[in-house]
Design a protein that fits this description.
- The complex is a heterodimer of chains A (119) and B (109).
- Chain A is mostly beta strands and 119 residues long.
- In chain A, 0% of the residues lie in helices and 54% in strands.
- Chain A is built from no helices and 13 strands.
- In chain A, the strands form 3 sheets. In chain A, strands 2, 4, 5, 6, 9, 12 and 13 form a 7-stranded mixed β-sheet that branches.
- In chain A, a hairpin with a 2-residue loop joins β7 and β8.
- In chain A, 36% of the residues are buried.
- Chain B is mainly beta.
- Helix content of chain B is 0%, strand content 54%.
- Chain B is globular and about 40 Å long.
- Chain B starts with a strand and ends with a strand.
- The chains are: A mainly beta (119), B mainly beta (109).
- The interface between A and B is medium-sized, with 27 and 21 residues.
Chain lengths: 119, 109
């Protein structure tokens, strides 16, 4: 079974703090993704990575950065947390179908999510 | 306009009913489509992929209409355990999935 784990289920931070969210997958997937999910807005892609040390901006990258030093681990960093970053953060991973950056993804497997509250 | 649009519901149906959800997408370049299921306070999980010829898996049938750019999900003989939010998803290529906001289904005894 594919397993995607996230470092925390619940996290409370203060405005201005630097926040690290970690995600680990055990299926040797090339792709890893960070989403946030908000009521009425659905899942929105923040960043994704298709290989170690490679990253691409998603739809809402502002205020976030990522790090992928190892294939199994993808970290999301909030450089200076703000209240509008209070959300559910979901990590996902998948294989790539076909070569190159333009390929379609295989099924995405999600971690359990981290509910982040910024006070 | 959102790239993937769904009726948020909720759809309230009795056990045993048949229920259908539609979803429209705006990017005609989208190649693949999926339905994910998300239970309350849980992560999304793949329910089924949507193939151009339609796809059936037990009580669930998914269909794709490229000309009208919509995807449907039909659930027959609804069970209480089918209560969840169903997310319509389009693969726009370049390893990006676009998620709809979800349709909530409530199945009652």
């Amino acid at each position: 079974d594919v397993k995607v784990t996230q470092s925390s289920r619940y996290l409370v931070k203060r405005t201005g703090e630097k926040v690290f969210l970690e995600c680990v997958q055990d299926m040797d997937h090339e792709n890893m993704f960070w989403y946030r999910q908000d009521p009425g807005l659905g899942l929105r892609l923040i960043y994704f990575s298709y290989d170690v040390k490679m990253k691409e901006k998603g739809d809402i990258p502002e205020g976030y950065s990522v790090s992928r030093e190892k294939k199994e681990r993808f970290s999301l960093i909030l450089e200076s947390a703000s209240t509008n970053q209070t959300s559910m953060y979901l990590c996902a991973s998948s294989f790539v179908i076909g070569p190159g950056q333009g390929s379609s993804t295989d099924t995405q497997y999600f971690g359990p999510g981290t509910r982040l509250t910024v006070l | 306009r959102k790239e993937v649009e769904q009726d948020p519901g909720p759809f309230n149906v009795p056990e045993g009913a048949t229920v259908a959800f539609n979803c429209t997408y705006s990017n005609s370049a989208s190649q693949s489509f999926f339905w994910y299921r998300q239970d309350c306070r849980k992560e999304p999980k793949l329910l089924m992929s949507v193939y151009s010829s339609g796809n059936e898996d037990g009580r669930f049938t998914a269909q794709l209409n490229r000309a009208s750019q919509y995807i449907s999900l039909l659930i027959r003989d609804s069970k209480l355990s089918d209560s969840a939010t169903y997310l319509c998803v389009a693969d726009t290529g370049f390893q990006k999935l676009v998620f709809g906001t979800g349709t909530r289904l409530l199945v009652s005894p």
